Amino acid sequence: MTHVIHRHLHSMPPTAVGGEGMVLRDADGRDYIDACGGAAVSCLGHNHPDVRAAMHAQIDALAYAHTSFFTTQPAEALADQLARTAPPGVDRVYFVSGGSEAIEAALKLARQYFVEIGEPERSVFIARRQSYHGNTLGALAVGGNEPRRAVYAPLLIEVTHVSPCYAYRDQAPGELPEAYAARLAAELEATIQACGPKRVIAFVAETVGGATQGATTSPPGYYRAVREICDRHGVLLILDEVMSGMGRTGTLHACEQEGIVPDLMTIAKGLGGGFQPIGAVLARGELVSAISAGSGFFKHGHTYLGHAVACAAGLAVQQVIERDGLLLNVQLKGRSFERLMREQFANHPHVGDIRGRGLFWAVELVQDRGTKAPFDPAAKLHARVKRECMARGLMTYPMPGTIDGRRGDHILLAPPFIVEDSHLELIVDRMHGAIDAAIASLD
Ligand SMILES: Cc1ncc(COP(=O)(O)O)c(C=O)c1O
Predict the structure, then answer these.
(1) What value does the mean pLDDT take over residues 370-390?
(2) Ligand 1 atom closest to Cα of 241?
(3) How far is the CA of 100 from the centre of ligand 1 (A)?
(4) Rounded to whole angstroms, how far apart are CA atoms 133 and 77?
(5) Closest residue by Cα to residue 129 from 109, 145, 108
(6) What does pLDDT average to over the chain?
(7) Can you tell me the mean pLDDT for 341-369?
(8) What local confidence, expressed as pLDDT, does residue 233 receive?
(9) How far is 214 from 246, CA to CA, in rounded Å?
(10) In whole angstroms, what is the distance from residue 261 CA to residue 182 CA?
């Protein structure tokens, strides 16, 4: 019997014992091509020699020093690297140990900023339905995944949710993308008005939708309109790039492709590539200066902030991405991946939508391509697809509840940036086989 509380209490996952590049190996010697980086984490694949060396060197020098006593060289160097490569004006970095912690810190920093500048009446966040921002209570509250929130609803801070960007189902027939963007922006504006513009702290959104909805991109002009509305009302814009950031969509930050700069941005998964648990909040200098000019102390903190080995790993990951020109690879291989999927599934009766950017993609499965009717949620198609993929030596990230938290299934794909065309062909072939087998098993 296992003493670990696993995610699913009725099943035991295989034991991972090793990995190299695109492949993970289990204790029975079975290999799995990693087409999803776990949860869009392993951007350099597994066991990268340069990251390993940087971690070993840091462990030999110093593993840990509490941030209330010391700073460390890797924390300073990683912050310098992140500030140098961040959008203009975003030059302060708060290190944490993962995505949820990054969101908690961003929410608190935003709230404290307003208290410090004399606007304590701001206490409301606006976020989007069908979003995912993490599982701690603040992150869960801003998240818009209803089934995940339901059990904890009485414990959550009040957040108002607006529509996500979901062109496949929500853009009306005949509606131009720009008009769809304007409609979504108008909804945000109306929601800010309804909350009372002086009461809103921030609008929180995943730049590209991730775990809950599957790689949903925004229509052209959406984020520029959002930025303008937030500015007009003095509302901060927090972009959650925990999953979609750090190169995943082909630029270091996903917001670069939207032509806007957020006030706060959260990053995590691709920051450390899974070699160490690390996340961060990137903040516009002005926000931190306001706190500095006021109380001089951000009322937050965790024991492992800026952990030296985690920062050394994150720095090594970011240096490898820069040195090896991997963002270009994300763009090029992303195009190959899209082409392969569109060819392979062009006539597939159950592949309703293929969407994404860079090496961040999702395939939405439907019972009927014409009506876009989803499969019966009770059939748990997503779980069947995952099982069939694993049986074929392929890791993908299938999720349920694509449409409203309950209905709909999609498969999220986020291969490492080192992926080659030969891997992509195998991934698409195996995924096709797994989808067909999973659907056949419903009969
Ligand atoms: C956009 C986004 N934000 C936050 C999180 C939470 O990150 P973590 O699981 O590291 O706490 C996730 C995790 O999937 C995510 O995708």
Answers:
(1) 98
(2) 1
(3) 6
(4) 27
(5) 145
(6) 97
(7) 98
(8) 98
(9) 18
(10) 19
Query: What does the pLDDT read at residue 443?
Result: 83
| pLDDT attached to residue 55 | 98
Tokens 């930025």 correspond to what residue?
Answer: 227
Q: Which atom of ligand 1 is nearest to the CA of 139?
A: 4
Judged against a pLDDT cut of 90, whether residue 1 lies above it is answered with no
pLDDT greater at residue 211 or residue 97: 97
Q: What is the pLDDT of residues 304-321, one digit of tens each?
A: 999 999 999 999 999 999
Query: From the CA of 243, how far away is ligand 1's center (Å)?
Result: 6
Please work out whether the CB of residue 134 comes within 6 Å of at least one atom of ligand 1. yes
Q: What share of the chain is helix, strand, coil (3-state, %, to 5)?
A: 40, 20, 40
Distance 274 CA to ligand 1 centre (A): 13
What DSSP string describes 31-73? EEEESSHHHHT-TT-B--HHHHHHHHHHHHH-S---TTT---H
List pLDDT tens digits, range 233-249: 999 999 999 999 999 99
* CB proximity list for 190: less than 8 A, separation 6 or greater: none
Please tell me the residue having the least CA distance from ligand 1 atom 3: 133
Distance from Cα 132 to the centre of ligand 1, integer Å: 7
Ligand 1 in contact with 360 (CB < 6 A)? no
Atom of ligand 1 nearest to the CA of 101: 11
- Residues near 374 by beta carbon (within 8 Å), at least 6 away in sequence: 365, 366, 367, 402, 403, 407, 408, 409
Cβ(103) to ligand 1 under 6 A? yes
- Pairing assessment for the beta strands 200-206 and 124-128 based on DSSP bridges: parallel
- 134 CA closest ligand 1 atom index: 6
**What's the 134 CA to ligand 1 centre distance in angstroms?**
5
CA–centroid distance, 302 to ligand 1, in Å, is: 18
Do 93 and 314 touch, CB atoms closer than 8 A? Answer: no
